[in-house]
Amino acid sequence: MTIIADQSQTKTDTTVWQPVQAGLWVGRRAGEFAGMIEQKWGEGYVVTTRLGKNLGRFDSMEEAQGALR
Q1: Which ranges in the chain belong to alpha helices (H)?
Q2: For 12-56, what is each residue's pLDDT tens digit?
Q3: CA–CA separation, 48 and 55 (whole Å)
Q4: What local confidence, expressed as pLDDT, does residue 11 receive?
Q5: 9 in a domain, yes or no?
Q6: pTM of this structure
Q7: Do the domain assignments include residue 2?
C-alpha cells in the first residue's frame, strides 16, 4: 500500500484556513496557528496574527487572507 501525503499542507509557506464557526476562520501554517479572520457583518474582515496583533480590516476574504502571507 502507498500513502501519499497532501503536499498543500506540508509546505511551510502555505496557510490552510479552517472555519471554526460562522464568520470565524483559523489559519494554520506548517501545522502551527498562524492567525485568524473574523467577519464583521457588513463591515469587512478583521485579521489577527498568531501573536494577537490586529492587521486591520479588509473588504474581502481574499484580501484578509493575503494579509497573513
Answers
A1: 61-67
A2: 678 999 999 999 999 999 999 999 999 999 999 999 999 999 999
A3: 6
A4: 53
A5: no
A6: 0.78
A7: no
Q: H or E element: which one contains 35?
A: strand 32-40
In a domain, 7, yes or no: no
10 phi and psi angles, rounded to 5 deg: -95, -15
Q: Is residue 3 part of a domain?
A: no
Reading the block at residue 23, the C-alpha cell is: 464568520
Only one residue has cell 484580501, namely: 63
CA atoms of 17 and 4, how far apart (whole Å): 21
What is the CB neighbour count within 10 angstroms for residue 6? 7
**Domain count of the chain?**
1
The pLDDT-based confidence of 1 (bands split at 50, 70, 90) is very low
Question: Amino acid identity, residue 42?
Answer: G
Q: φ, ψ for residue 39 (rounded to 5)?
A: -85, 125
